[in-house]
Design a protein that fits this description.
The chain contains 5 helices and no strands. The protein is an all-alpha fold and 161 residues long.
């Protein structure tokens, strides 16, 4: 019997998506860390929106275009993934309007963390089980290998203070 604490065997087709998830989880940490250190919410908010527009939105679009659509239209996990993306887009819109709302920033961080954990622990395993080896190989070959350079383009590293 497999130990429940064993690492998840990730298909090579999904490894790049998982690597990108690391940066999303790091965003949540940066938000919470900034708030804990009493950094101005405007500063945290500005970075969050910048990161969302330059990293997360691209990642979401690739998942929606390359991953989610590979599942049957009536698949509940596919629906959940699309719904959670839509909710995170709405939260980002709210952040653009409410630049000083600490609770909204925390909500964004927590929802993003929860969504990433859902994808890593549930959705990706589901995709690996449903897709053929050939479909997974095509996905691996087509998904762009990109490294997050958002922090290189952002001068205010409030989380380092």
């Amino acid at each position: 019997m497999k130990n429940s604490t064993s690492p998840i065997k990730r298909s090579p087709a999904l490894i790049q998506f998982s690597r990108e998830h690391h940066f999303g989880l790091l965003l949540g940490w940066k938000i919470r860390h900034g708030i804990k250190k009493n950094i101005s919410t405007e500063r945290i908010n500005a970075y969050t929106i910048f990161f969302f527009e330059n990293e997360l939105a691209k990642h979401f679009k690739e998942e929606e275009k390359d991953l989610f659509v590979k599942l049957p239209v009536d698949d509940n996990l596919r629906k959940q993934a699309f719904d959670e993306h839509a909710y995170i887009y709405r939260l980002a819109d709210e952040l653009r309007e409410n630049k000083t709302d600490k609770n909204l920033l925390l909500k964004f961080a927590n929802v993003l963390d929860s969504h990433i954990r859902f994808e890593e622990r549930t959705l990706f395993n589901h995709i690996q089980q449903l897709l053929s080896n050939e479909a997974l190989k095509q996905l691996e070959d087509s998904h762009s290998k990109r490294k997050s350079d958002v922090d290189d383009k952002w001068d205010d590293h409030f989380w380092e203070n």
